[in-house]
Amino acid sequence: MKVDYFPLRMMHIYVKEALNIDIGDSGIVNRIDRIRRENDLIIVSNSRQVWKTYIDSSSSKGNDILIKGYADFITRSTIKSKLVLFEYGNDVDSSKLLIDDLDISDHVEWFPIIPRKEMYYVLSKADFTADQFILGDAGNSTWEGMVFGKPVFVFLDVKEDEFMNSGRQFPPVLNVNSSNQILNFLWEFQENKIRFHQMGNESQIWFEKYMSEGLADMYLKILNATFSGIRISLNELKFN
After folding, report:
1. Which of 189, 153, 140 is nearest to 65 (CA)?
2. Span 110-115, average pLDDT
3. Which of 82, 130, 175, 178 has the smallest CB count inside 10 Å?
């Protein structure tokens, strides 16, 4: 029995389970609920703070790009906003120094490392989430943002037609790798929130089709073919 190669990805989160958040009252819940009530725009980045310290070629996140883009937005914005970051990664102190130098400390909220279920609750309150801007690939922070129907800032270093050759539509993310691009999207959000709400809905649908239930169905198709001794071709592994 032969199975042609197909670039399937490991399932990260089962959407319906992730959305079923019931963590009761806690300091984290109260804090993010207050931030949500008091602001028109919230950006949450649960990506590790790694942008100044070299660890290896696959670790840098480019968090400074997000911070600088948000700082530029603050100087022109007419709405109340917050950037939510987590005290996680080698360069937390460097990020805090950068935020102080840019004079935007009042607009940034630092959360401690918290259980994943609480972190999901924080993500659920965001208008945007953010992953990395250097590596060119999506990580868990991208998928987690999409699960909750959020527009995600992330850099994907791949052409759309090459991606679609794998049988999937290109993910509806905000594909950026510069502070100016982030600034422009935040500025557009201030003028037209509806577009980004629609993108968030599309991202959740995309994730469920290609990375959650749809991907589980694909694995089942492969397993059924394997146990039945049936040869399955690449075309049969295309998503509908």
Report:
1. 153
2. 94
3. 178
